Queue: 3 jobs
Job 1
Amino acid sequence: MTSFSKGDKVAWNSSQGEVTGKVVRKATSPTRIKRHKVAASTDNPEYVVESDKTGARAAHKPEALRRV
C-alpha cells in the first residue's frame, strides 16, 4: 500500500478528468466531508485531499492517488 504525508502533491481521476491537489490529512477513523460519510479506519485509511483548482476536499483510498 502506498503511503502519503500531509502536503504531498497528488493526482486522481474524477468524472471531469484528472485532478491535482495536495494531501490535507490521513483519515483513520470514520469522518464526514460536507455531508459525505467517509468510512475510514486504521486498517482501511483514506486520504483527505484538496483540489488545486477548486479548493474542494474529498477522501480517496491510497490506491486511487498517485504522486505528481
Note: The longest strand covers residues 17-27.
Job 2
Amino acid sequence: MARLILSMDGLVLKEIPLNKERITIGRKPHNDIQIDNLAISGDHAAVVTILDDSFLEDLNSTNGTLVNGQPIKRHVLKNNDVVELGKYKLKYMTEAAVADNAAALRAAGIPAAPEPERTFSDTQIMIPRPPAPDPLPPPQVTVRLLTGPNAGKVLELIKTLTTLGKPGVQVAVIARRPEGVFVTHVEGESFPTVNGRELGGDAYPLKNRDVVEIAGIRMELTITG
C-alpha cells in the first residue's frame, strides 16, 4: 500500500497509508490529514487513489500546492515525489518502495518491530488456506455519447483506468475492476452525476445503462461480463 510521509524541517511527524480512495488534506478538523497551520487552507488538497495510481489535486488553496518545487493543480504522483504545503512536506512512497525500505533496514542490521508472543491457543490448530481463485477479468464497457459535438459516437473503454472530462473544469476516472465498474471524481469544484444524482468524493459503482454526466457531457454506459 502506498503512503505519504508527513514532515516539517526534516522531522518526520506522521506516516499516512493511502487506504481510502480519497484522502483530503487541510486545516479544518474534518480532513483525513489535518495540518493546523495558517499557511494551509481549510480544504487544501486531496489525493485520489485508484488501484496502483494516485492523483494529487489542489482544491483552489490560497497558497497553492507544490510538487518537487513546481506549482500544480492536478498531478499523477510518482515514487519519491515531494508535496509541499507551506513549511510541511509529504513524501509519496509506492508499495514497492516501502518494501524496499524495510529490506534496507534489515540489511543494515536494524531490527524490525517484534512479533507478538504466540500462545498455545494461537498455534494449536493449523488450518491450511484454500488456494486463491484465479482473478476474474474486468467487465467490458462501452460508452455512447448522448450530448456534445460527438453525440451518437460509441467508444469502447479498453484501459483499466479511463480519464474523462475537461482539465480545470471537471475530471473523473472510470475504473474497470474484476468486481465491477466505478466512477471517481478527480478534479473540479462540482462532482459528476449518475442518472441525474450528484456523486460524492468516493468511488461510485456503475450499472448497465447508467447515464453519467462529466463536464457537461452525458453518456450512457453498456456494461457486460
Note: The chain has a mean pLDDT of 82.
Job 3
Amino acid sequence: MKKYTCTPCGYTYDPAVGDPDNGVAAGTAFEDLPEDWVCPECGAAKEYFEEA
C-alpha cells in the first residue's frame, strides 16, 4: 500500500501502521480513511496529503 505525506507538516501516513491513536487500524489504505480524518500532527485535511 502507498504512503502519503502531509504537505504542511511532513507527517507520513503509513497504512501498515494506521493511526491507532485516532481509531484507524493497521492495514487501512489512505483511500479508505474516513473523509473527516485529519493529520494527527497538524490537523490538515486529507486533501493536503500527497503520495510519498
Note: The chain has a mean pLDDT of 98.
